[in-house]
Design goal:
- By secondary structure, the chain is mostly helical.
- It folds into two domains: 148 residues, no CATH class; 199 residues, Rossmann fold (3-Layer(aba) Sandwich).
- The chain has 18 helices and eight strands.
- The strands form three sheets. It has a three-stranded parallel beta sheet, sandwiched between helices. Strands 4-6-5 form a three-stranded mixed beta sheet. Strands 7-8 form a two-stranded antiparallel ribbon.
- The two termini are 34 Å apart.
Length: 382
């Protein structure tokens, strides 16, 4: 199987550098390091301290009043998995601001017990939920093709997760969608994204669909009907309809920790009984049995996994020191997600040898080397 030149494909710097404040490296696509060696995610966290969130809350209230329903109909859509972040957004919109959100859930590839429990707890806390569950064989095929061709078995899921709430909003005539945080700003993207409050559909295509056209998927054997939930309709009518997705994190000072405690108190959110493989937390990536493979392939390509992301965030928010973050990354970041490996192979109809052939296709050899017959990072964070 042809190997992919990861550095060339994603235009990654040849010299590997780590942020002096957190544990993220310059191998994360689109991240920017300044002259002082500080990453754009850390600089964005500093920038947030200068934001007048009281003023932004007033901006939020005006937006809500513009779209508020006067006849008890839904007035906004909140994509929600039942997880801590979306639960916080939906509950605060309803309880604090008097909105009537319709929550929309895109079904995981394979629900975990705790993921299903959290969704039901959220539903029981007072929210209508529309659950999107496309054909199982289509999801399985998308997962396999995306793994081979894009180095990310989760890309098919992400397509549906992004598009399905928009589709439902348009069908219900709702023009306001609230997503969680601006991931480009919060986790390390271009500083140009810092002040963005929403993403129009053309931006979704650019960032989330990775510029893969509909023809690409049709050539892989899918039909337009099978892709109806995964890809935007090509009609001008769809693109011209007003239905922009706002980042709730633009209006409110976003904090994963705060969201966890809020959702635990108000919507019955529960962490897992065990930590997530590849990190030290019990509330990250707990909805889907196969989500850990999304993070693991990112580790192969960019040299950082779920633990790096979690530790970097907690360093910025002051919950751990950089020294503690480095130790956690060394301990957990390269852990293989073996708990659901057998189920992953069954889901994608792959043998173990085929899986490892695909994995090696996407391994970034600028970042990995073999030592005692095991792959290790060439440049561990220090």
């Amino acid at each position: 199987m042809e190997k992919i030149n990861i550095s060339q494909k994603y235009n990654l710097p040849k010299e590997v550098k780590f942020c002096k404040k957190c544990v993220i490296s310059n191998q994360r696509p689109r991240i920017v390091f300044d002259k002082d060696g500080i990453c754009s995610a850390c600089r964005y966290f500093e920038y947030k301290e200068t934001i007048d969130f009281n003023q932004r809350e007033e901006e939020l209230k005006k937006l809500l009043d513009k779209h508020r329903s006067n006849n008890e109909r839904y007035d906004c859509v909140v994509p929600s998995s039942g997880g801590k972040d979306s639960a916080y957004v939906a509950h605060e919109l309803k309880s604090k601001y008097g909105m009537n959100p319709l929550t929309v859930t895109w079904s995981p590839l394979k629900y975990t017990d705790i993921g299903w429990q959290n969704l039901n707890n959220f539903n029981d806390s007072g929210f209508d939920v529309i659950l999107g569950m496309p054909q199982g064989d289509v999801k399985k095929k998308l997962t396999k093709v995306a793994m081979i061709e894009m180095g990310d078995p989760f890309q098919g899921f992400i397509y549906g997760q992004v598009l399905f709430p928009v589709t439902i909003a348009l069908k219900f005539g709702i023009q306001l969608i609230f997503r969680g945080e601006n991931a480009e700003a919060e986790y390390g993207g271009s500083p140009e994204s810092w002040s963005k409050k929403f993403l129009p559909m053309n931006e979704f295509k650019k960032i989330y669909f990775s510029n893969y056209t509909l023809d690409f998927w049709l050539k892989k054997g899918f039909t337009k009907e099978e892709l109806s939930f995964f890809y935007p309709p090509l009609s001008k009518e769809f693109e011209n309809k007003i239905c922009d997705s706002y980042f709730y994190g633009y209006f409110r000072n976003w904090s994963n920790h705060s969201n966890f405690y809020y959702a635990s108190k108000h919507t019955g959110f529960k962490p897992n009984v065990r930590r997530t493989e590849g990190t030290y937390t019990k509330y990250s990536s707990i909805d889907d049995k196969l989500d850990t493979f999304h993070q693991w392939f990112a580790l192969l390509k960019f040299g950082h996994g779920r633990c790096t992301a979690n530790a970097a965030r907690e360093i910025r928010e002051g919950y751990i020191t950089r020294e503690e973050g480095v130790a956690l990354v060394h301990k957990y970041d390269t852990e293989f997600p073996k708990l659901y490996f057998k189920e992953f192979l069954e889901y994608t109809n792959l043998s173990e040898d085929e899986f490892w052939d695909i994995a090696e296709r996407w391994r970034n050899h600028n970042l990995w080397t073999k030592k005692n017959n095991e792959w290790v990072k060439k440049y561990p964070v220090k």
